[in-house]
Specification:
The complex is a heterodimer of chains A (421) and B (294). Chain A is α/β, with parallel strands linked by helices and 421 residues long. Chain A is 40% helix and 17% strand. In chain A, strands 7-6-8-9-10-13-14 form a seven-stranded mixed sheet, sandwiched between helices. In chain A, strand 6, helix 6 and strand 7 form a beta-alpha-beta unit. Chain B is mainly alpha-helical and 294 residues long. Chain B has one domain. Chain B contains eleven helices and two strands. A two-stranded antiparallel ribbon of chain B has the order 1-2. In chain B, helix 1 runs antiparallel to helix 8, helix 2 runs parallel beside helix 4 and helix 2 packs across helix 8. The longest helix of chain B has 31 residues. Chain B is globular and about 60 Å long. The chains are: A alpha/beta (421), B mainly alpha (294). Chains A and B meet through strand 7, helix 7, helix 8 and helix 9 of A and helix 1, helix 5, helix 10 and helix 11 of B.
């Protein structure tokens, strides 16, 4: 969801990329490798005859998103190795083909097409920004292939070809608001970067606030990458709101929190709840600047579950003791295991059988037990509010009493009726 | 009242950042006519200099004070190299300098990514710059005050250099009439080199200063280059005093617009104001009267 800037009209380009992909598909069907394929659409060429099965990872390993997406790639790699070490999926070892999305939605669409058509992978894992997901969606739908998307996002989407293992809005933003309301918050100030996720999130927050009697004292958007926050912070300070809801993205957080601290605002006087600062981002923003501030996620490295202890230990053993684990990394790790469970339940790698088997599949994830919702292909998650501690890790200060069912269109919330339209 | 003072200061502070970024540019672009798109990357180099110095000297206060001259040197030397290797071959071809320096900017960005990694790095502010002082109830952040002071100091230094030293006299002579200066025995080569060294060095200092505001990333320069050109063009090409007035006027106007509307609309309004201003006065606030025949 982060840098989902539509810098150019990528839709025509994506369509062009698709055309190329479809043109290439003709030769693939004739390929002898596709003889083993029995999927209904007839376009798949997944080879299930050998002792290994191909899966695709698609992450930005270069460009502006590489900092975030390479961590997801690492945790996917870890999950694949663990699965292979424990006997693979349906007895077949995973053979990973990795593609670089290069922080460009068009590249994501093109590379996803390659992973499906040329590499004949059984499923693809990755993507981060909403624009990369939206660029890949038509490719996966046209080829009837599977994408597992591991990042929290703005909701209002559902596709039978995409499994969303990150939080949708009712598993991150709404619980954060519930928490604030529970703490007696009567007024909020909204600060975000100027693009799709913050604007959608703030629309939801406005609707929630109107229904629950919370006053929104201000709503400000900074241009992406902006480092000038004097005026915005002056407005925040002047608003005397009880708390700030922060949907700023990436480097703007540094400038915002520095300015925030330098005019004397603190976590005690006016706490800031952030939805895009995880363990991975804290050092970049500067621990001094965010110590004591709040975050809203479903997973923190400090969670005390056996699955998480195993995950963190395995991750550090493989990538170094100084590395941290974050929510999107955990969701990516979980996504590979969920696919394994779906395939094993279906007894097949075929897309339609996996889709049919998906509903109700569970996995004991580091964040707790997650269940796939067969209706919208999202998963149940346990929302948690965290507080950034002195080590730069995040302690859970509140967690939802039970796992929350995914509701990407907010259909079960009365106050959100007008939003989905 | 408290808010008014806070906002006035926000405007002055933004103006001082713009001035720091634009001061060197008004020298290289204004005085020499070189469109240096890599100016922002010289700032980025200055910012990473502050980072490297802080890795070596862990005391944030000492490292900041060391970083300022070090950033000046790094920026200046980069400028010297650029001038000696590429730009000297293309004076009087401003469009070519634009393309060439844009390429250099991309090379420098990639170099920074390769050396320091794509994630941004954090340069800590020294303890004595944390917090704020109260002015009639309005909190004035110390870092912003420091940057304001630094930009005024750089301005004073530059004006003194141009007006009161033999070197400055030679630089001004070359700007006014290159051929006449040359026939009068002024080494225009040396003067060009020095001007570029100083202009680029000022970019380095600006880079050190902005590490106090935000994060230091390979893309840092791209945030400032457009604003810096706006200041120089609006101020009048080749006019230091024009750049000063333009920087503070833009800073104050932007914070007023931003306060009365929103951050994104404020930015739009400021650009509209600049476009309208340049329609009415294409030469900027002040225009340079040269004795050049060209």
């Amino acid at each position: 969801m982060w840098v989902s800037v539509t810098k150019r009209a990528f839709i025509p380009l994506a369509a062009a990329a698709m055309a190329t992909v479809l043109a290439g598909c003709g030769s693939q069907i004739a390929d002898p490798a596709s003889a083993g394929s029995t999927a209904s659409s007839g376009t798949t060429c997944v080879n299930t005859s050998g002792s290994s099965i191909k899966v695709g990872f698609i992450n930005s390993l270069s460009g502006t998103m590489a900092i975030s997406e390479s961590t997801v790639f690492d945790s996917l790699t870890l999950a694949a190795e663990e699965i292979n070490a424990s006997g693979g999926v349906l007895g077949k070892q995973l053979s990973v083909i990795s593609e670089d999305g290069a922080s460009e939605p068009t590249k994501f669409a093109e590379r996803a097409g390659k992973l499906i058509q040329q590499d004949c992978t059984a499923a693809v894992f990755g993507g981060w920004t909403s624009s990369s997901r939206k660029a890949m969606l038509p490719v996966f739908e046209a080829n009837d292939a599977l994408l597992f998307y591991p990042v929290q996002y703005e909701g209002l989407e559902s596709s039978k070809n995409i499994f969303y293992t990150g939080a949708t809005t009712n598993q991150q933003i709404i619980p954060a608001l519930d928490y604030l309301a529970e703490q007696g918050t009567k007024s909020l100030f909204l600060v975000g970067s100027d693009y799709v996720f913050p604007r959608t999130a703030n629309k939801i927050i406005q609707a929630y606030a109107a229904a629950k009697g919370i006053e929104i004292r201000g709503e400000e958007y900074a241009p992406l990458g902006s480092t000038e926050f004097s005026t915005i912070v002056n407005k925040v300070r002047d608003s005397k709101a009880d708390a700030v809801f922060n949907t700023l993205n990436g480097d703007s957080n540094v400038a915002f929190f520095r300015q925030y601290k330098s005019v004397g605002l603190t976590a005690d006087t006016m706490p800031v709840v952030s939805v895009s600062i995880a363990e991975e981002e804290v050092p970049g923003v500067g621990l001094d600047n965010v110590h004591g501030q709040l975050t809203a996620w479903d997973y923190y490295q400090t969670l005390d579950t056996p699955a998480n202890k195993k995950f963190v230990a395995a991750f550090k053993a493989k990538f170094g003791a100084e590395r941290v684990t974050s929510d999107p990394m955990e969701a990516a790790y979980t996504s590979l295991y969920l696919w394994k469970a779906m395939v094993e339940k279906a007894g097949s790698f075929e897309v339609d059988k996996v889709q049919a088997a998906a509903g109700g599949v569970t996995f004991e994830a580091p964040e707790g037990l997650v269940t796939v919702n067969g209706e919208n292909n999202h998963i149940t998650k346990t929302p948690r509010i965290g507080k950034i501690n002195a080590d730069g890790l995040i302690d859970t200060v509140w967690s939802s009493p039970a796992a929350v069912k995914p509701d990407p269109f907010l259909a079960t919330y009365d106050w959100a009726k007008d939003l989905a339209k | 009242m408290e808010l008014l003072i806070g906002q006035m200061f926000a405007g002055l502070s933004l103006g001082s950042v713009l001035l720091l970024a634009a001061l060197g540019l008004s020298l290289t672009f204004g005085q020499m006519g070189v469109i240096n798109m890599a100016h922002g990357e010289f700032m980025m180099a200055g910012a990473y200099t502050a980072f490297v110095v802080q890795q070596t000297i862990s005391d944030a206060g000492v490292s900041l004070l060391v970083s300022i001259p070090a950033g000046f040197l790094v920026g200046g030397v980069l400028g010297l190299v650029l001038e000696a290797v590429l730009l000297r071959r293309m004076y009087h071809r401003p469009l070519d300098t634009l393309l060439v320096t844009f390429g250099v900017a991309l090379i420098l960005q990639q170099a920074a990514r390769d050396i320091f990694g794509a994630p941004s790095v954090d340069v800590r502010a020294p303890g004595w710059l944390q917090g704020n002082i109260e002015l009639l109830g309005a909190p004035i952040p110390l870092t912003r005050l420091f940057i304001l002071g630094l930009s005024l100091l750089c301005l004073a230094g530059l004006v003194l250099l141009l007006k009161a030293t033999p070197l400055g006299r030679r630089i001004r002579a070359v700007v006014l009439n290159r051929d006449l200066a040359e026939t009068s025995g002024v080494s225009t080569r040396r003067s060009d080199q020095l001007t570029f060294f100083i202009g680029s060095g000022l970019a380095g200092i600006a880079g050190v200063a902005v590490t106090l505001i935000g994060s230091t990333s390979p893309y840092l320069g791209t945030n400032y280059i457009v604003d810096a050109f706006l200041v120089v063009v609006a101020g009048g090409i080749g006019q230091i005093k024009g750049a000063v007035i333009a920087a503070f006027a833009l800073g104050v106007l932007q914070s007023v617009f931003e306060y009365s509307t929103t951050a994104s609309i404020g930015k739009v309004l400021i650009l509209i104001v600049i476009v309208m201003f340049l329609q009415l006065r294409p030469q900027g606030i002040f225009s340079l009267k040269t004795r050049s025949l060209a």
